[in-house]
Write a structure and sequence with these properties.
Elements lengths: L21 H12 L24 E2 L11 H6 L12 H5 L9 E6 L5 E4 H5 L5 E8 L4 E11 H8 L7 E6 L19 E5 H4 L5 E6 L2 E2 L9 E3 L12 E7 L6 H5 L23 E4 L9 E2 L7 H4 L13
Parallel strand pairs: 1-4, 2-11, 5-12
Antiparallel strand pairs: 2-3, 4-5, 5-8, 6-7, 6-11, 8-9, 8-10, 12-13
Bound molecules: ligand MTE.
Ligand MTE binds next to loops.
């Protein structure tokens, strides 16, 4: 049974001024006034309160004009195995999850490394809304109005050295807060990775919001990866570690079933999952009688990313 309390619709959300703490408020004021700091010098502010409005969000030219899914679809139909295996589990089991205090450790082949408090980590970057088509490996899709920071900006900020060929990510591994960690569905912590070329492409973001509000716990609070041309399992949630590696990192689903889930995980209607077709997809939220739509190569983002794979056999490197 779903607890009602976590099913808040955007229209029911109390105004953000009731949520922002004093420090957020002062920083948000600097944005609203606009006189103190030039817009390009603004820092990304993520209020420390559930579903608060994110201030200073600009629109992105990378957004699709397809209709977004409802806030309810996006926040109640989730994959987040740390909070249970069923789609309806995370909204219930992540309700008491605490996305603060939060630190992010940056390690490996980079000039700048260390452990950063979440606010300090976010500070150099700008918040953008990116409305992206998302395609899950389970052959369903959604359109999600994310708010986030450019992963390319983050990577460049920490100045990876020439030895850094990959960027690896890890999720929090806290049994006290994540009941799913007691099960052995995956080898915890959840891990994902990208090549450095993928991570510095303009499309991937680290998302901190949905529909202009702080990201719900079940969607990966306080910060998660979004890579719109790859299957959804690449979008690792609740990130605590970012590592610049010279070798290809181990990734959770590839470790669990290497014949089913590859490192690249590019959306590809021409390469089926061993147990089902990837040619079509069901858009969540539509009528159950609606016919499925065709899946697009690279989820429709080929113009931006196809060049990354021009020398790669995508049937072998799935
Ligand atoms: N990240 C962690 N830590 N644990 C998970 O189980 N599931 C992945 C991905 N990130 C997962 C995760 C899968 S399979 C999908 S499809 C997306 O999260 C779903 O993201 P959403 O629930 O925000 O739509």
């Amino acid at each position: 049974m779903r607890k009602k309390s976590n099913l808040i619709r955007p229209s029911e959300i109390t105004s953000e001024s009731n949520y922002l703490n004093r420090r957020d408020f002062i920083r948000a004021g600097a944005i609203a006034g606009g006189s103190l700091i030039a817009p390009s010098a603004l820092s990304a502010i993520v209020p420390d309160s559930r579903l608060a409005t994110l201030p200073g969000v600009s629109k992105s030219a990378y957004s699709t004009d397809e209709a977004p899914n409802s806030f309810e679809d996006i926040s109640t139909y989730n994959n987040f195995y740390e909070f249970g295996l069923r789609k309806e589990d995370p909204v219930v089991n992540a309700e008491d999850f605490k996305p603060r205090p939060w630190t992010i450790e940056i390690s490996g082949h980079a000039e700048k490394t260390g452990t950063f408090d979440f606010d300090d980590f976010m500070q150099p970057f700008d918040l953008e809304e990116r409305i992206y088509r998302m395609r899950c490996v389970e052959a369903w899709s959604m359109v999600i109005p994310w708010v986030g920071i450019s992963l390319a900006d983050v990577v460049k900020h920490f100045q990876p050295t020439s030895k850094a060929q990959y960027v690896a990510f890890e999720t929090l591994n806290d049994r006290a807060q994540m009941p799913g960690l007691r099960g052995r569905s995956l080898d915890w912590p959840y891990r994902e990775g990208l090549t450095i070329a993928e991570a510095t492409n303009p499309l991937p973001i680290l998302a901190v919001g949905i529909y202009g509000k702080v990201i719900p716990n079940q969607n990966g609070a306080p910060i998660r990866l979004v890579v719109p041309w790859k299957y959804g399992f690449k979008g690792i949630k609740s990130i605590v570690k970012i590592h610049f590696s010279s070798t290809r990192p181990k990734t959770s689903w590839n470790m669990a079933a290497p014949n089913e889930y590859g490192f690249y995980a590019n959306v590809n209607p021409g390469v089926n999952h061993p147990r089902w077709s990837q040619a079509r997809e069901r858009r969540i939220g539509g009528s159950i009688f609606a016919s499925k739509q065709e899946t697009l190569m690279f989820n429709g983002y080929g113009d931006e990313v196809a060049h990354l794979y021009k020398d790669l056999n995508l049937r072998r490197n799935f």
